[in-house]
Specification:
7-stranded antiparallel β-sheet, PH-like_dom_sf, 9 strands, 212 residues, elongated, PH-domain like, NECAP_PHear, 3 helices, two-stranded antiparallel ribbon, alpha+beta
């Protein structure tokens, strides 16, 4: 008799997900919900090149597929459209979801029961857009979990003190009416503010000799 996942020492993620449903503190996020998913019993694989959806002719179930994150787990759920009862659980991990070689709408899922035993089933969508949403949800979940597990370290450098020290003064040029104030020298005469553009004095310009 084959061992269960617990007896073999293998983490039973399907059982962990089902147990988490009893915990109201666990946050659940539904990545996508696709109402028309079809499940097929897989025939023996004809070639080693991969699964072919064209070989599937025994449909066993139809309902809603969901990609759900709950706690640290990501699972593909197959649920009844009317009652919401769970038909199958596919914990997302390496080798759990495989694409068929002859159609982008057909997949093979590795589903597990509460005892950790698993079986492979065929799953198909009616529309390519549904298959695209399914793939995107799985990829986004994988990428975000990898980013959370390996956060990027940003070196902000040492903090700087921009406070004004005791006795330190700040000099500010204040413009009045669009021009800077002209400061007075010690003898009371006004000095022109530096930095402005001055027209050249005509006496500094050499007189052009007229042609004779």
């Amino acid at each position: 008799m084959p061992l269960t996942a617990e007896e073999a020492g293998v983490p039973n993620e399907a059982a962990a997900y089902l147990a988490s449903l009893e915990d109201p503190e666990v946050v659940e996020r539904v990545r996508c919900s696709i109402p028309d998913a079809h499940v097929f019993k897989l025939p023996p694989r004809q070639t080693a090149g991969g699964w072919r959806g064209a070989d599937w002719d025994q449909e066993v179930w139809q309902g809603t597929l969901k990609v759900v994150e709950r706690g640290d787990l990501t699972v593909v759920l197959l649920v009844d459209r009317t009652s919401g009862a769970i038909f199958a659980v596919c914990p997302v991990k390496d080798g759990a979801v495989d694409r068929c070689v002859d159609s982008s709408r057909y997949f093979v899922l590795r589903v597990e029961n509460a005892n950790g035993r698993h079986i492979y089933i065929g799953m198909a969508f009616n529309e390519r857009n549904d298959a695209f949403d399914f793939n995107t949800s799985l990829e986004d979940s994988r990428r975000e979990r990898e980013a959370a597990a390996n956060p990027v370290q940003v070196d902000v450098g040492p903090s700087k003190d921009y406070s004004i020290k005791e006795g330190q003064k700040i000099h500010i040029n204040v413009k009045v009416g669009g021009t800077e104030k002209k400061s007075k020298s010690k003898d009371g005469k006004k000095k022109k503010a530096a930095g402005g553009f001055l027209k050249p004095n005509t006496r500094d310009t050499p007189r052009r000799l007229s042609d004779t």
